Amino acid sequence: MTQPTIPQVKTSEELKGQDEEYRTACEKLVISHAVNELYGAQVFDEPAIALAPTPYAKWLTCRVAMEEYGHHVRFKQLGEEMGIPAEKMSPQEKRPLSIFEFPLKTWAEFCAIKLLADLAEILQVEDLVQCSFHPLRNLARMTMPEERFHAQFGKDFSAELCETEEGKAALQDAINRYFPMLPAFFGRPKSRNNEIFRKWGIKVRTNEEMRDDYLRRAKEVVEELGLTLPEVEQAA
Ligand SMILES: [Fe+2]
Ligand SMILES: [Fe+2]
Fold first, then answer.
1. Sign of dihedral through CA atoms 54, 58, 60, 61?
2. What's the CA gap between 70 and 62, in Å, rounded?
């Protein structure tokens, strides 16, 4: 594949004059974020407010839910600026990621989700902070501190659960059931989409590199809590 000169696209207006492959790639990413941030807030963060065990935990969970809805709002606004029709940014049109199919029922499960899924999101956002489409880069930079707060929330409440044997066992059980869904979040190895993202300087790393880095970082945070990660199948 011939390497194009990587553009530096400063506004959504400038995007309109870019190569179609570049525009489509940027649109795909914005649609995916708009849909998944909304869906995640609806199936995990908002219901978790009712599961939170104390007023303090409820207050912080409200903040997490507010921020996840806020991520959707920002990505959707960017999509509108780019001229993406609203229906293309809805879960009816674009299927949400499989990581949201986990049926959330307990507080320990929500802690496992914030601990592990938001770490996965941090890796995705890290990959966008140098993005050649600057409005997306700016959104990634704005979103990053909030995603870090969500992962820290996951760590702090996980540590609190680990103070009792019962809480620790519930969290380990939640991790055992949820973690195997996460490696798929990074996409297939040798993905054509990822190749296009890297070709145009929209993303930096391959799906395999991101997934391997994720597995390493997830193992570290889980072992810090005195827990273990279940074995997951390595994608070929
Ligand atoms: Fe988010
Ligand atoms: Fe988050």
1. positive
2. 12
Instruction: Give per-residue pLDDT as tens, 200-212.
Output: 999 999 999 999 9
Q: Which two tokens stand for residue 152?
A: 């820290």
- On the 0-12 / 13-18 / 19+ scale of CB atoms within 10 A, 58 is middle
Task: Pick the closest to residue 170 from 232, 111, 103 (CA basis).
Answer: 111
Give the tens place of pLDDT for each residue, 25-57: 999 999 999 999 999 999 999 999 999 999 999
pLDDT value, residue 233: 72
Asked if residue 52 lies in contact with residue 58, where contact means CB atoms within 8 angstroms, the answer is yes
The environment of the single-atom ion ligand 1, i.e. residues with CB closer than 5 A, is 37, 68, 71
102 vs 113: CA distance, rounded Å:
10
> So what's the architecture of 12-224 in CATH?
Up-down Bundle (1.20)
Q: How far is the CA of 72 from the centre of ligand 2 (A)?
A: 11
3 state SS of 9: strand
Structure-block tokens of residue 115: 């601990």
Return the ligand number nearest the Cα of 119: 2
User: Could you state, in order of their start, the residue ranges of all structural domains in the chain?
Assistant: 12-224
Please check the confidence at residue 234 and state whether its pLDDT lies above 80.
no
